[in-house]
Amino acid sequence: MATLWQEDKEKTIKLVATHKKDRFVFDSDFSRVSNYLREPEPEMAFFTDRSIYRPGQTVFYKAIFFGNRKLLTNKSARVFLYDVNSKKIASQELTTDEFGAINGSFVIPQGILNGNMRLHYEIEWDLPYYKNLKKTYYHYFNYPSIFRVEEYKRPTFEIVFPLVERNFHLNDSVSIEGKANALAGYAIDNARVAYRITREERHRYGFWWLPSSKL
User: Using CB atoms within 10 A of its CB, is residue 90 exposed (0-12), middle (13-18) or buried (19+)?
Assistant: First the structure.
């Protein structure tokens, strides 16, 4: 007969085989499986007001937490701001409202490395294991809210091209027309135009469902 024998309350479990008066304890240990691992995990939806910022600008965010088919209201939530080197540079602790939501903001520091920054979230989650220990458990979400930080300039104009309504082949003549308009609404005239033509190779194995043809 084989039984599981708990060596201590928190760490490991051993497998013990017995037969009549003989007893054998296996060398391998089994990690203790706590009841809290079987609990469903909370979920969330998050938003930022933009996807790209400049250093010194403010990132406004909002997150909604839910679990067990209900909103997680009046729960403690933590938000962490990480730079491009995965270094935590700021954090906030908030309480969810009647809709299970939090909202706040971070100011992006000046003089940091530009690139992808991210927000990570934690939410207070009721687990029997931690309740018995009279401790608060925070569930950490592995999917962050990612945004870019760049020293960009706002565009002052746009170029609009009509949709292409036919297919072209090699050695065909192609005529392209477009309009350059300022974002203020007026047309731009007498402007210098520079363009570049590139060619991309497409392998046939990526389009196996198309009939074969010669280029």
Answer: middle
How far CA 79 is from CA of 55, 64, 133, 138, 176, in Å, comes to 20, 12, 25, 11, 49
Tokens of 79: 């938000």
* Cα-based angle 183, 185, 188 (whole degrees, multiple of 5): 80
Question: Model pTM?
Answer: 0.58
pLDDT tens digits along 24-67:
665 555 555 454 445 678 999 999 999 999 999 999 999 999 98
Q: Are 82 and 117 in contact (CB under 8 A)?
A: yes
Domains of the chain (ranges; CATH) run: 2-33 (no CATH), 40-149 (2.60.40.1930)
Burial class (CB in 10 A: 0-12, 13-18, 19+), 72: buried
